[in-house]
Amino acid sequence: MLEKVDLQKKLEKEEYRKRMDELAPRLGRLQRECQKWKIPVMIAFEGYGAAGKGVQIAELIQALDPRGFQVYPVKNETEEEKMHPFLWRFWTKMPAKGRIAIYDSSWYRKVLVDRFDGKTSDKETEQAYRSICSFEEQLTADGMVLIKIFLAIDKKEQKKRLEKLLDSKETAWRVSKGDLERNQHFKRYQDMNEEMLLRTDTAYAPWHIVEATDRKFATAKIYSIVVQMLESKIAELAEAARRAAQADMTVKEMDDQVPSASVEDQLLKESVLTKADLSLSCTKEEYKEKLKKLQDKLQKLHGELYRHRIPVVLGFEGWDAGGKGGAIKRLTQKMDPRGYVVHPTASPNDIEKAHHYLWRFWTDMPKAGHVTIFDRTWYGRVMVERIEGFCSKKEWQRAYKEINDMERDLAEAGAVVLKFWMQIDKDEQARRFKERQENPEKQWKITEEDWRNREKWDQYEEAVNEMLIRTSSPYAPWIVVEGNCKYYARIKVLETVVDAIEKRLEEKKQEEKGQKKA
Amino acid sequence: MLEKVDLQKKLEKEEYRKRMDELAPRLGRLQRECQKWKIPVMIAFEGYGAAGKGVQIAELIQALDPRGFQVYPVKNETEEEKMHPFLWRFWTKMPAKGRIAIYDSSWYRKVLVDRFDGKTSDKETEQAYRSICSFEEQLTADGMVLIKIFLAIDKKEQKKRLEKLLDSKETAWRVSKGDLERNQHFKRYQDMNEEMLLRTDTAYAPWHIVEATDRKFATAKIYSIVVQMLESKIAELAEAARRAAQADMTVKEMDDQVPSASVEDQLLKESVLTKADLSLSCTKEEYKEKLKKLQDKLQKLHGELYRHRIPVVLGFEGWDAGGKGGAIKRLTQKMDPRGYVVHPTASPNDIEKAHHYLWRFWTDMPKAGHVTIFDRTWYGRVMVERIEGFCSKKEWQRAYKEINDMERDLAEAGAVVLKFWMQIDKDEQARRFKERQENPEKQWKITEEDWRNREKWDQYEEAVNEMLIRTSSPYAPWIVVEGNCKYYARIKVLETVVDAIEKRLEEKKQEEKGQKKA
């Protein structure tokens, strides 16, 4: 894409002023419109060193209300960031609905500068492209406007600019060794940029190449691109609202009208849960003995996890009163509290609702060496949100792939990822509900909502079955825990966690040995 | 996904009959509905050996009108198929609108059996996943119903079936060495299947896992899946038609309402064509001398191409009277006619219209060692179809990526891919049109349509600019040929082709050397 670009383009001052006088106030108005329509916007600046990313961002924000945007310079990963999947730092810097985030270089760094520097291997490059495509697809599907701007200058112009910067003490520090090296091996670096542009130029998140030799030309073109992208999104939403009104529906109701493509016949459907043998049990004595052994082992393993920098993600789902809390309590009882955290997942609050549904989970993911336990998880999307209509059918149908992709990102970053489904039968649930109601110590645990959910048992069972099949993977398996006997269930959870950690530790030690040898 | 599946599921005979008595006629009706709505359908059967793909396909087609479907067994690639990108054989076996194609194992073979057998390297596996995702996305976006069925049995059941087949002379031949090996290393093969299911289970082309231990259960479930998928597509089209009627528009007009996101300001836009220096020329003497040399060289290279099995794809686009025909004539003048073919691309005929717009080009792609020249190409999608409204805005906007992906498939299969834009200015065109009209020998070359197109020069220029930038790649570059002087243009085309072939030959020889060593 780059080689066809005319880098000599320029705008005379007068032409430039004429355009900017029109574009700047228009952009200001559009920002307010985006707030009104609750449109989140990400603007990523990529391009060659010294092409003027900083200058252009400074120009762009002139027209914006500073309360509505934030600029993120993207540099080498911090120690903290290195301990997460590479997209984590972008998930945590994601604009809420109605806000604008601007990135001075972006998630593409992984396949550009880092790749050039040999920090990203060939295998990681392929993984990164998969992750990036999934990231951009799910954000835009969720309503994000993703504006990707590439500032292009040629080798000669870049050299001239770098030399000029080096000439003065005030600016010399801005030129890194890497900048000079990428200038020297311009062709090699350009090939990587070219590959990146071609592999990620999609209809939903297209690249905009900006000829950046002339600063004024670039500024006007960037303004024009941002204005057009925002206007087109607003027009799209307005049109959707108009159509929905015409059909006397909400936009979500329209989206819900995706025709169903799932097997309707119960007998032919998945039945993962019915397979669980709920008669499995163990005695109190067995339980006590095993519990102690497993907890001691886990305590030891927890230290090893830390030393070998392995992150662990444990998700708990299950029927109300299925024993999630009890299992989590036994799991963490002897673990060092500085090394784990338990996140109870409630309905999303306002800030969370203003983001992609996976956002809050991404931000809570553990760094390498730490353990994060989620009491209820991102699977709410394909269970309660599906059943209660909190998201559209379109949305939960694509969530399986989105969730598989997120978990794959975690696993590729070295994490142990396990998901537990605490299974009990309907009778056992009734017994426990009753017990809770009758016990003043436990009354707080049971609410009207629990009874309402119980009435939807069959709907949940259908959703859970589909979820277990479509999202159980070798890198992030579902474990159905037979939970009618609490003792049995707790031991099974502990055993599974211990086994998985031991296995991952063994792999990691092998990897580390291999690295030392190499 | 597989490990959660309950392979013990079965249907009693009576239950089975009850279901089939309802499903079979329903499927028959749906096939007719699909013809009416012009829906093309692909049904891919994957799954373990001896899981019953053949039996189940035989059951499925019972309900279908044989004039409306075709079954393709997918075996080892033939010699012919090996000489094309791996998806080529599926492009050429694609159903027309309203027809059903059934594949007994499919394009997934590349990442399953072939991968297991070591025929697909790690790098090729990644490439194949990219190609497959692009393939499925663009087909479904174009209206294809893609039904992917995975038949699952376990290792023990498979072994039992294989042994039973081996027991009888009549059936022993059906068990291959590979079947036995995959049974022996079931886990390793299962991991590949699992990865495949997870990486390609999308909202637009989901996987359906069918428990295949009990034949009757599997048959009923497959019928049910196919019925549901077709019904949901028909409901979607009916709904789109209803909404369009409500808005007093056609469905295409609705699709055209994608808001525009391109820069509106002419000055800020791409101007690849204006950069072409049309004063470039060469004298008749220079021309004759160079032409002879280049043609002789190309003749020699053509033989080398054949021996080294390199496919060559040359596309020609340009203004009417831009000199495409003349350039192609000089290019092929001394080439061995058994080794090249020229495809003039006219408006699509009825059969072509009943397929994806890339279908006719895929089927015409050269096999390894051959040269195919397209006089006008697949770029019609983003030029004439865009401007004349023959496709919707949504369609041509996503075409850039689709085309880049197709050309990448070709390049990854080892092809030289070059695209020439024959550039002349408007005055030169007028001169040539007039000349054609006045010369009785050339009158056939000029039609009313040429004059009409000329009136749309500016619209075309805009489309061509966008096309050149967004689809010029290192693996398939656009070459803008300064064409006011025909001599100059023809020499430039020949030189470019010769250079590119020499370069590719050099690479190929290096590869072959490397392979010999290894």
What does the model show?
The structure is a homodimer of 518-residue chains. The first copy, chain A, has 518 residues and is an alpha/beta fold. The first copy, chain A, has two domains: 2-246, Rossmann fold (3-Layer(aba) Sandwich), CATH 3.40.50; 278-517, P-loop containing nucleotide triphosphate hydrolases (Rossmann fold, 3-Layer(aba) Sandwich), CATH 3.40.50. The first copy, chain A, has 22 helices and ten strands. Chain A has helices spanning 13-37, 53-60, 79-82, 88-91, 113-116, 122-141, 155-167, 169-172, 177-184, 186-200, 215-246, 251-256, 284-307, 324-332, 350-353, 359-364, 384-388, 393-412, 426-438, 448-455, 457-471, 486-517, and strands at 41-47, 69-73, 100-104, 145-152, 207-211, 312-318, 340-344, 371-375, 416-423, 478-482. In chain A, helix 6 (122-141) runs antiparallel to helix 18 (393-412), helix 7 runs antiparallel to helix 9 (177-184) and helix 9 (177-184) packs across helix 10 (186-200). The first copy, chain A, is globular, with a radius of gyration of 27 Å. In chain A, 40% of the residues are buried. The mean pLDDT of chain A is 94. Chains A and B meet through helix 10, helix 11, helix 18 and helix 21 of A and helix 10, helix 11, helix 18 and helix 21 of B. Chains A, B: This is Phosphate--AMP phosphotransferase. Chains A, B: InterPro entries: P-loop_NTPase, PPK2-related.
